[in-house]
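Exam prep: given the inputs below (a chain plus zinc ion), describe the expected output before reading on.
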Amino acid sequence: MLTDSHCHLDRLDLSPYNDDLGAALNAARERGVERFLCIGIDIKNFPYLIDITKKISDVYLTAGIHPMEFNDGPVEFPEEGLAGWLEQAGQTETVVGIGETGLDYYYSSDAIEAQQQSFVTHLQVAGKLNKPVVVHTRDARDDTIRLIREYGNLDSAGVLHCFTEDWEMAKKGMDLNFYISFSGIITFKNAHTLREVVEKVPLERILVETDSPWLAPVPYRGKSNEPKNVVEVARCIAEIKGVSYEQVCEQTGQNFARLFRLRGLERENRQNV
Ligand SMILES: [Zn+2]
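Solution:
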């Protein structure tokens, strides 16, 4: 079951679809995408995302604050603080995971402490709620692994999303029970090293994602990305691993359902819009 395991539905460019999110999702469904995980990255848009996922049965949700949110100064939390907000948000019926959280030292070093504090809180709440955590990591390999090891719940684990690091980091993540999610970056011409990582990571540990609206795969590079383009990511993995496209869709879909514990969560009584 082809699944876009990471998309930001509140940030898609819907202009080709007359501002109709349902039409963008239909375009993906027409290409065989059967499930979507919509990733929350701020407090402001979260109520809108709850609204979407309550109405559309093949869209699941996560709750979190993106590490880059801290780069422009302190983030304002509601009265109950980050932990309180996350705990509440994490118990929403359609929420299957905590994040996007993590560490990104690429642009700013001023925010390192705030990012780390937030990451630790996400890991703790995820552990408490027994939900997997969606982790963003860039230029922060050692700290990411260290904090997961120290504060993460290896039982509920999580995913290193939009993976662009090396094999050593992938291995450390898998040793902590994490899955590795690949995005359209693996289709980029110069991504040789990353494709070598794809080759080595067992298909049983891989998820596929778009990270839309960002990072459109070849041949859509430079355009706004959307969930339908997860097909190109799955195709690329099939090519690298020398297995069939169907096998990649099937296995990564199973991996997704296992990680996010979807059994029993399929909501039959809800209708697609
Ligand atoms: Zn993301």
